[in-house]
Amino acid sequence: MADYKWPDAQHRTLIGTRQSRLDGPVKVSGRAKYTYDQNPKGLLAGAILRCPHAHAKVVSVDTSAAEKIPGVKAVQVLQGPGKEVHWAGDEIVALAAINEGIAEDALRAIKVQYEVLPHFVDDATEPKSAAEETGPLALDDLINMFSNQVPEPQISSTVQKRGISFPVTDDLVKRMRSFNVGENVIKALQSAPQKSPESTRSPFKKSAVNVTGDPDQAFKTAEATSEGLYGVPVITHCCLEAHGVIAHWPDAEHLETQVSTQNVCGMPDQIAQALTGIGIPISASNIRNRQQHVGGGFGSKFAADRWSLAAAQLSKKAGGAPVKIMLDRRAELEVAGARPSAYAHVKLAAKKDGAITAWDSQSWGTGGPLGGNMPPIPYIFTEIPHQRKQHISIATNIGPARAWRAPNHPQAAVLTMCAIDDLAARLGMDPFDVFLKNLPLTPRANVYEAELRKADELMQWKKRWHPRGDESSGPMKRGLGLSIHTWGGRGHQGAGDLTIHPDGTVEYRSGTQDLGTGTRTAIAMVIGETLGLPLNAITVKIGDTNFPHDGGSGGSTTIGAVSAESRRAATDALNELLAKVAPTLGVAPDQLEALYGTIRVKDTQGKSITWKKACSMLGATGVTAHGQNPDPSKPPDLTNSGVGGAQMADVSVDVETGIVRVNKMVAVQDCGLIINLKTAESQCYGALIMGISYALFEEKIMDPTTGRMLNPNMQFYRLAGYGDIPELVVHMMTGPGYDERGVIGLGEPPVVSPGAAISNAVANAIGVRVPFLPITPDRVLAALEKKGGAA
Amino acid sequence: MPDDESKQGVSRREFLKISAITVSVPAVIGPTVLEVGGEEIPVYGPGKTPITLTVNGRRYTADLEPRVTLLDALRDSFDLTGAKRVCDRAECGACTVLLDDRPVYACAVLAIDAQGRNISTVEGITSGDALHPVQHAFVANDAQQCGFCTPGFVMASYALLKHNPNPSPEQVAKGLGGNYCRCGTYYGMRGAIGQMTGQRSTVGLPQSEVLTDRETDRPTDQGGA
Which of A233, A695, A696, A229 has the alpha carbon at shortest distance from A422? Predict the structure, then answer.
């Protein structure tokens, strides 16, 4: 009998090889159909009128003129009189018309009056007058902590200490469990003191001081100290396929949606709950959501969002006709995702040999109207013996925060790795040695050491590094920088069904989604491996809530889940098949194996039957097996958690123009057992490129006067282009010590380090820290001026 | 040019359906011709006007308002959805098509102005089910993730290589410099262009140890097209 365990290296035929993605051909030929590409019969164009003010109250809405325009089929007020709007671009009215032109004409005919309220969009300036927050937590504060991935023990202690101002209903508990919130947090909430809510809320919320050890003494007796200012602004997701949806009612009770989403199976529950709440009662089981391809998500496409509900409402009003709402580029950049900012003054104490003894940070930042939370600092070097941390969260009108690939980790990496780099400069040491010296303060010291040494080899760091400040003549200064990172990435709970048909075809069905990470291909590889079949013998069907429920693709949890699910389903189905054919081959089923398109007797040359012949013995219905990845409370088996990586950057800075160019980047990464080496490497190449983009170019620039985003387009919200890409070297850590850990996710971790590594390389080149990302020419020149002239 | 059903994304039946729908709209008028300074200038609108486009060697007709862009005409009227609307203001290249063999942003060209020109889209460089070598190179080098920018990059690469089969790295950067990718697939593109120009060994991308056979490199329903 076959078992679930992953095959070892010498018995793998597909796992760990480089395979081209199965959906590559449909993507390169333009035949891949995204939500945005669907043109069902009778499609109505949906459009949304958005609030032009960063903070306002809706006074009146008059849609009568719009409703009279020929071709307008439905109008729906989304936020009517009395509603308070907290960011520019928030949705006010949605409508559907026979084409986009008429829909736009109709939007212009709507009259909305606002009472404009004061706005606040400055998150980079350090708040001077923030009072420490002691009052009870509102529900928003709790949601804020969850969405900012505050560690659960910290949530529990905060809840217990400060009390709460909202009831812990059964419904709330149910919702928390569905998001895998730990039982300890739920218990802490249920036993927390109930207090009445705070009457006034300042935009600045100062956390209690968090102290470990004796930082005062440690700084007093330190052999060396260094301090610096570091920061990462709000950036946006800028998915190329904007957020959007098509919704229609095939009959009065059933709703069909195609949401552009990272969370196909999460949509029906969210939509049903919200629609029922606004007077359109429907059960989740009557909603079918589908999606074949999604044009980017990066953490911003988990929720159904108001436009999905609007499309369903408009469709209902228009007699069930399909309504498509896709955000335009301005809305996509203004409202559909803002990564929280983080800024900090960081002080470090150390011994002369570079061993860090104390950390002190005063940090601040915004996660939108709810404020946000402190990123996980000190990052990775969590065991620094003496620490003092205090964070001020700033409620702003910059826009709603959404998870952005590796939430809070890129920010934490900049605040931590740049501070350590500055300490190394202060000590006159090579940061490579200071990082190595302090690895005992990290959870996986041996892995980081192996990765740093590999990166050194690929970058020739030791040979090429020079002390801070390139002394060579001429305006072009060159420098090296490094950073390390971590992530969890264990597979989420989910399932799939595998059918072996009597004609020998194999089909797998699961409600998961392929974000472009190669999910389909990885599933086919696992099944092909398990059944001894080539890749093109496997049909993988995903992206439909009619298939077994699978989790959202967030937190790098997809590959661990889908590989474990499909491995289990394929193994169980194979065992049924082996039991059926064993009598024909005259051996017990456990003497059989599936390999190279045959079922054959182990260790016996020649005794085999073809796959097709074997399957013909299955009877009329074939065999179907259900594969489920157990929930994370069970011990890990096929999937695991915890990866590391080291990255190095080589940059050139023109000190006359301030322009930074990356010459080369090296990424060394572990992620357990790799299914498809080709798409795994692609994740790393892509993450390095996305990292160069946010390190050098990306910032959601806000106008303090109007409270609006100044660069809501792709000309001024600049992404890295083809010409910005340097030599990239990716090395995956595989083999003994890695493979046996099981499959671990990879989407997030490699995007964490580039910002810190590039910032450190720039400091090494020009001899001074450019405090904030993105490292734009003006910031480089300002830093040089402060330092007192060119490097 | 003659209609050639076998090579096109829209069947004759679909095509007739498009025509049938639009013929019934009463507000259709042709251009008014004004004489300005001795030259005759056609003025369209404000209502719908019949337009004829030659796309991938085939004629398509529809009645469209003059404000409709070439991109929206291709996508909404002819169901050629390979070109994408992302920025809608000529910044990102996701809508790249060829107009008389030169790459243009279809979001920045009016459909009425594209009449009489030869328009090529990503659907047109595929011959039946066989991918163009550029498309093969994109697949083999994994030059796509979410895939939304990919048709635009394929067309930009196709145009670049058509006019300059041996571009220098600087010429490639210029040729693909009008497009953006969010997933960061430029490195795969570098490999794809390198493969097309015979510079495989210099691109740095590891080559497949287990090459996918061409049998699977066909656009199929796998992935739901």
Answer: A229
Among the listed residues A566, A551, A580, A579, the one whose alpha carbon sits nearest the alpha carbon of residue A507: A566
Chain B residue numbers touching A690 (CB-CB < 8 A): 182-184
Residue A703, domain member (yes or no): yes
DSSP secondary structure string for all residues of A523-564: HHHHHHHHHT--GGGEEEEESBTTSPP---S-TT-HHHHHHH
SS3 B22: helix
Give the gap in angstroms from C-alpha A208 to the nearest C-alpha of chain B.
38
Chain centroid offset of residue A320 CA: 34
| Chain A, chain B: beta-carbon pairs less than 8 Å apart | 240
Q: Which candidate from A240, A294, A685 shows the least CB-CB separation from B149?
A: A240
Query: What 3-state DSSP class applies to A219?
Result: helix
**The domain that contains A429 carries what CATH number?**
3.30.365.10
- A242 contact residues in B (CB cutoff 8 A): 86
Planar angle of CA A111, A115, A117, nearest 5 degrees: 135
Query: Spelled out in words, what is the top-level CATH class assigned to the domain B133-207?
Result: mainly alpha
Cβ–Cβ below 8 Å for A689 and B188? no
Please list, residue by residue across A712-746, b when 16 or more beta carbons sit within 10 angstroms of its beta carbon and e when fewer do. bbbeebbbbbbebbbebbbbbbbeeebbebbbbbb
Decide if A216 contacts A302 (C-beta within 8 A): no
Q: Which residues 196-225 on chain B approach chain A with CB closer than 8 angstroms?
A: 204, 206-210, 212-213, 215-220, 222-225
* Interchain proximity B217–A18, CB inside 8 Å: no
What are the pLDDT tens digits along chain B (225 aa)? 344 434 444 444 444 444 443 333 445 566 777 787 788 877 777 789 999 999 999 999 999 999 999 999 999 999 999 999 999 999 999 999 999 999 999 999 999 999 999 999 999 999 888 999 999 999 999 999 999 999 999 999 999 999 999 999 999 999 999 999 999 999 999 999 999 998 753 333 333 333 333 333 444 443 333
Contacts of A520 (CB under 8 A, 6+ apart): A21, A22, A23, A514, A540, A542, B222, B223
Residue B150: its chain A contacts at CB < 8 A?
A: 27-28
Among A14, A39, A108, A240, most B C-beta atoms within 10 A, so best to mutate, is A240
Q: Provide the chain B residues 116-175 that lie in CB contact (below 8 A) with chain A.
A: 121-123, 126, 131, 135, 138-140, 142, 144-151, 154, 172-174
Domain range B5-125, its CATH number among 3.10.20.30, 3.40.50.2300, 3.40.50.150, 1.10.357.10:
3.10.20.30
Q: Determine whether the interchain pair A720/B150 forms a contact, defined as Cβ–Cβ distance below 8 Å.
A: no
Q: Is the peptide bond before A378 cis (omega within 30 degrees of 0)?
A: yes
Kindly state the average pLDDT of the residues A614-635. 92
Task: Residue A452: give the domain boundaries.
Answer: 409-489+640-787
Using CB atoms, pick whichever of A22, A239, A725 lies closest to residue B182. A239
Q: Which residue in chain A is spatially nearest to B72 when comparing CA positions?
A: A100
Please answer whether residues A784 and A765 qualify as being in contact, where contact means their C-beta atoms are separated by less than 8 angstroms: no
SS3 A717: coil
Q: Which residue shows structure tokens 């030929």?
A: A29
A392 in a structural domain: no
Domain spans in chain B, listed from the N-terminal domain onward: 5-125, 133-207
Specify whether the CB–CB gap between B150 and B82 falls below 8 A: no
User: Residue A234 domain-assigned?
Assistant: no
